[in-house]
Amino acid sequence: MLASIPWSRELRTLAARYGGLTAVRDEREALSYAALCARAHALAAQLLAAGVQQGESVATLLPNCLASVWSSCGVTLSGAAETPLAWGYTADEITWSARLAGFRIAVTRRERAGALRSLGIEPILVEDLAAADPGVTLAPVPAEARGRILFSSGTTGRPKGFVYSHGRRWIGNQLQKAALPFAPDPGSRILLMTPYIHGAGLLAAAWYEHGGEVLLHDGVDAARVRAVLEPGGLDALFAPPTVLAKLAAAFGETRYRGLRCVFTGTAPLAPALYARASAMFGPVVRITYGKSECVNPITVLAPAEVHAHFTREARESGCCLGWPGAGVEIEIRAVEGECLAAGFEGEVWLRARHMSEGHVDADGYHPHPGGWHRSGDLGRTDARGRLWLTGRVADVIKTGGYRVNPDEIESCLAGTADCGSVCVTSLPSDYWGEVIVAAAEGACGDWSAQARQRVAALSRHKQPRAYVSVAALPRNAQGKVSRRALREIILGSHDFVDGPYPLLTPRPPAEGGEAPGPDRVPP
Question: Which of 87, 128, 279, 430 could form an S-S bond across to 63 if both were Cys, CB 3.0 to 4.6 Å?
C-alpha cells in the first residue's frame, strides 16, 4: 500500500500540461485546467486555515455545476475526508449525515447557507471563495487517512456512511482509468448528467486526468442532450438504464452515431432497453458494476461483449455484469456462509483494494470483517467467470438512480388514518428503474391525501408515485408481508403506463363495485 498520496502535485501537473484546455463545462460557463487547479488549491488553503485536520470530514452540498468539481478536488487536496451530500437532502438527512461523519463544515451555495447554520454547520460558500491559490504544492496526504465518506440507504434502517482512505480513493481512480475502453485524447468530450457525487464524479476524474473535457448537466434534459449530440464531437456519455429509457422515449427512432462509448451501470439493463440504446447509438454500450460500498470498477463488460451477450446468447435469468476488475475478488455465498460453485445463486460478497474499509452507523465504525463486504445482492457466476445479478437480498428499490429503503417510507406511513397496515413495494419501469407504490390494507376515505402529507418531509425520490388500496396484504406463515406478492396483486388488478409521469389505473371492478380514478404523481 502507498505511504502517501500526492494529490496536490498531480493536479498541478495536469494544470501545467493542459492549462488552457477546458477541463469541465456546465450549462453556463467553462473552467480550464489552470482555473480548476487554482480554485481547488484556494479552497484547500481556506480549509486548512480553518483548522481542518487530515482525515476530518468536510461535507459538500452542491448540484451538478463547476463548483461541484473543484470543491471535490479542493477538499481532497486539503487531506480531509470528502463527504458528498445529495443536493436534495432534507434537514433531517443532513443532520443524520453530520452525526455519523462528524463534519462541522460544508461547502455549498448561498441558498443553503441559512439552513446549514441553523443545524450548527459552518457553510463555505462557493460564490465567495475567500482564499487565494497559495501557489505552492501541498504536502502529500497519508494514504491511511480517511479520504471519503459515501452515504447509502443500505438494506435496513437509516443510511450508513462508507469510509474510504485516501489510498483506496487513489487506487480506485487508477483502476477507473485503466478500465476505460479507450484513453481519451486532450479535448475528448464526455457528457455526465447524473449526480456528480456518485458515478459521474468517478468518471469525471478518470476523464480529465487524460486532458479530456467533462460536460456536466444538472439532470436529464432531452432537449439539451439533443443539442450536444446533433453537432457531433461527443466521444462518450454516462447513461444508467433510467437515463437511457428517458432518452429513448424522447428521441424515438432518431439515430446518433459517432459516440465511442455509452457507459451504463447502477441497475440491470433489460434486453429491450439495450436494443433501443443500440439502435440509437450503435453497439457502444459498456456495462459495469459499482456500489457505494465498493466503487467502480467491480466488474466490466466491454461494448463488444455487451453486444454479443444481448444478440447471441440465450436468455437467462438475471443480468450479466461481466468479469471482475483488476484486484477484485468475488464470492457467491449461501445463507450459511459457504462459498458456492459457478451456476449456483447466492449472495454476492466482494473484496478489493479500492473498496471502502468499513461503515459508520449509529453504533459507530465497523470495519468489513476480513476485508469482505456482504453486498446484499443476489447473483451467481457462470462457467466463464462472469457475474450475474438476479435480485436483491433485501427489497431495496432503485428508482431514478437512487437506492430507496421501503422500510423508511413505511415508517412515515405507519398509523395513517382510514386504513390498516401500509406496505411499500415497486413496479418495474424502463423509465425510472422502479416506481415506488404504497398499498394500504382495507383503506377507506381519502387515505392517499394523508399519506402524501406524511411523506412530504422525505426527499422527493423517496416519495411514492402511486397509492393503491387492497382488501388484504399478502402475508406468509409468519405474518410478514411479501412485497413481491403485493407487486403481483397490483399488476394483476391495475393497468400500468410507464414514462416520466407513471400512471396506475385500477381495472373495472366486479359488477356492482366502483373503480377509483387513476393515481398519477409528477416526478
Answer: 87
Residue type, 23: A
Instruction: Copy the grid coordinates of residue 124.
Output: 463555505
* C-alpha closest to that of 169 among 73, 104, 47: 73
Secondary structure (DSSP) of 302-343: -HHHHHHHHHHSPP-SSEEEEEEPTT-EEEEE-TTS-B--TT
- Please choose, from the candidates 11, 36, 402, 16, the residue with its C-alpha nearest in 3D space to the C-alpha of residue 214: 36
The single-letter DSSP state of residue 196 is I
Cross-strand bridge partners of residue 61: 85, 108
pLDDT in tens, 405-419: 777 788 778 767 777
For residues 174 and 297, the answer to whether their CB atoms sit within 8 Å is no
Q: Give the integer Cα–Cα distance in Å for 438 and 446.
A: 14
23-47 pLDDT tens trace: 999 989 999 999 999 999 999 999 9
How buried is residue 384: exposed, middle or buried, by Cβ count under 10 Å (0-12/13-18/19+)? exposed
On whether the pTM is more than 0.70, the answer is yes
Comparing CA positions, the residue from 292, 267, 305, 272 lying closest to residue 389 is: 267
Radius of gyration of the chain measured on its C-alpha atoms: 23
Q: How far apart are the first and last CA of the chain?
A: 45
Tally: H helices and E strands in the chain: 14, 31
